[in-house]
Amino acid sequence: MIDIDEKYKKDWKFLKDNFSKEMEYYTKNIGTKENFNRIIEEVKKIKRFKVVLDNFYTDENKILGLTHFYTDSAEIIFCFYDFYGPDARVNMRDYLKGINYNLDLWLTYDAIPFDELEAAYKDIKKIKNIIDKVIGVDRNE
């Protein structure tokens, strides 16, 4: 049985050996502190969103944690990829598919009325549009 540290080291070496150009491009152009701060600033301009950053990280490293956007309809969780963390291989797989970050919708109930689901969907689309605009992705979905 392989321990977690050994698996992490193998995954990181695999990424470094095979995807170092992609990792460098991402960390210099997409998952940057400048982009992170611009996203937070843009979302804070929308009064109905409450922004909560992970307490685990220092202010300098908030980009590595989860960012929570709260509205009446849902909790939206955002983070850039960390190609040096335990989920690096999964993150790279998604990045190679054209997905540039994690964006998840958490609902308060297992079953919710359609109007609440619709409101949550509109909120996550608003956040997604802000993020895509900041990082320079123009997708007309």
List the helices and strands and how they pair.
Elements (H helix, E strand, L loop, with lengths): L3 H26 L3 H12 L5 E4 L13 E4 L4 E5 L8 H9 L5 E5 L7 H22 L6
Antiparallel strand pairs: 1-2, 2-3, 3-4
Helix pairs in contact: 2-4
The N- to C-terminal Cα distance equals 44 Å
Tell me, rounded to a whole number, the average pLDDT: 89
**What is the string of helix and strand elements?**
HHEEEHEH
State the low-pLDDT regions, or none: none
Task: Tell me about this structure.
The protein is an alpha+beta fold and about 140 residues long. It has one domain (about 5-135). The protein is built from 4 helices and 4 strands; from the N terminus they run ααβββαβα. The protein has helices spanning about 5-30, 35-45, 90-95, 115-135, and strands at about 50-55, 65-70, 75-80, 100-105. Strands 1-2-3-4 form a 4-stranded antiparallel β-sheet, covered by helices on one side. A hairpin with a 4-residue loop joins β2 (about 65-70) and β3 (about 75-80). α2 crosses α4. The radius of gyration is 16 Å and the shape is globular.
List keywords for this structure.
141 residues, alpha+beta, 4-stranded antiparallel beta sheet, 4 helices, globular
Give a concise summary:
With 141 residues, this protein is an alpha+beta fold.
